[in-house]
Amino acid sequence: MENIKNILSGSRVLVIGGLGFIGSHVVEQLILEDVKEIIVYDNLSRGKIENVDLDNKKIKLVIGDVRDIDVLDNVMKGIDYVFHLAAMWLLHCKDYPRTAFEVNIEGTFNVLELCVKNGVKKLIFSSSASVYGDAIYSPMDENHPFNNRNFYGATKIAGESMATAFYERYGLKVIALRYANVYGPKQKEDAVYTGVIPTFLRKMEIGEDIEIHGDGSQAYDFIYVEDAARANICAAKADVNFGFYNVGTGIKTTIKELVDMLIRLTNAKIGIIYKPYDKNDLRQLVKDRVLDPTKAYNDLGFKYSYTLEEGLKKLINWRKNKNLININKSD
Ligand SMILES: NC(=O)c1ccc[n+]([C@@H]2O[C@H](COP(=O)([O-])OP(=O)(O)OC[C@H]3O[C@@H](n4cnc5c(N)ncnc54)[C@H](O)[C@@H]3O)[C@@H](O)[C@H]2O)c1
Question: Which of 120, 153, 200, 268 is the 20 to 30 Å CA partner of 56?
């Protein structure tokens, strides 16, 4: 069989937002790709140092901000591939739009400009399915209109649009990944759509009833974090210079189905309380979002490998082991 060269092997890579939920999984997978050096760049606003293995000699941590051009410029010297995952999340964008503008839009501009300046071979930009807003048709392919109605989605649309301009003007290779609802180990509970999973699991672990907002028929596309991280690797390796890609499973799961599955997998003896959405709850703007994964499969060779049930089982086990470690630590 022909030996296909792994372009990541021996390369120097930069993971901006690498201490975060998805970014730290990207770092783990880059180690397996035999890269030469991984610079993890993060301002610690949401990321945690313990999310990456700093004992690994390949990983170098730089605490810095995407708004700090000089520091970012310095770390980008000699970098081959950049993975840009740093962003303010949905609720922060809602409450602090100016900071969101500075981090998500200006910060992304800084990354694009410095990628050009430093001759980066390819940028993998974390966009979001939020660009689509609520479904006009389902599953949503990459041509689905931008039906977004919140500022977070607006910042991702701006990021994609700037990336297009940089590709056209400077030939900067960019792949933007529109993740569906990513879940898995290391996720925080305040993530807007997928935060329900760690929140429900915690309540099930302590035997507390859970609340469903709305009637539970709202449906999303849940993708396991290792799969979302692997999409970044596929995007870097693929012989594609530019494009926007859905990162989802194409499988629709309602919140009620999710809860039933979690109860079955954990054997939790808890009740479900149905509550109306709060007036300002952004989640009611998007009640149907399932992504068509075909383009990512055809162009990037990316396909999810964990079903929701398999991913949830892995997450439940991880939480059990983590609790054991914490108990041992406090002994
Ligand atoms: N988790 C999801 O379901 C999901 C869905 C769609 C899109 N995304 C996008 O994927 C990316 C990663 O998401 P995540 O869930 O891992 O989020 P996260 O908050 O866990 O990770 C983001 C990381 O960026 C860092 N960061 C934030 N602002 C920064 C700044 N100004 N300078 C440097 N570092 C900064 C944070 O400390 C954090 O470690 C984000 O761009 C997010 O918008 C996530």
Answer: 120
* CB-based contact 159:108 (threshold 8 Å): yes
Assess whether pLDDT exceeds 70 at residue 325.
no
Check if the beta carbon of residue 35 is closer than 8 Å to that of residue 10: yes
Q: Which residues line ligand 1 (CB under 6 A)?
A: 17, 19-23, 42-47, 65-67, 85-87, 89, 103, 107, 126, 128, 179, 181-182, 191, 194
Query: Helix 21-32 vs helix 225-237: angle between axes, to the nearest 10 degrees?
Result: 50
Residue 273 lies inside a defined structural domain of this protein: no
Between CA 57 and CA 36 the distance in angstroms is 10
Task: Give this prediction's pTM.
Answer: 0.95
CA distances in angstroms from 182 to 22, 25, 127, 177, listed in the order given? 8, 12, 12, 12
CATH number of the domain that residue 47 is part of? 3.40.50.720
Residue 284 dihedral angles phi and psi, to the nearest 5°:
-70, -10
Domain count for the chain: 1
pLDDT in tens, 24-59: 999 999 999 999 999 999 999 999 999 999 999 999
Does residue 266 form part of some domain? no
Q: Tell me how far apart the alpha carbons of residues 225 and 182 are, in angstroms, rounded to a whole number.
A: 6
What does the H/E/C string look like for 5-56? CCCCCCCEEEEECCCCHHHHHHHHHHHHCCCCEEEEEECCCCCCHHHCCCCC
Distance (Å, whole) CA 7 – CA 208: 49
User: How many alpha carbons lie under 13 Å from residue 270 in its C-beta half-sphere?
Assistant: 24
Q: Which residues are known catalytic residues?
A: 152
Cis ω before 293 (30° cut-off from 0)? no
What are residue 285's phi and psi, to 5 degrees? Answer: -75, -25
Mutating to test ligand 1, I would choose from 24, 49, 85 the residue with most ligand atoms within 8 A of its C-beta, which is 85
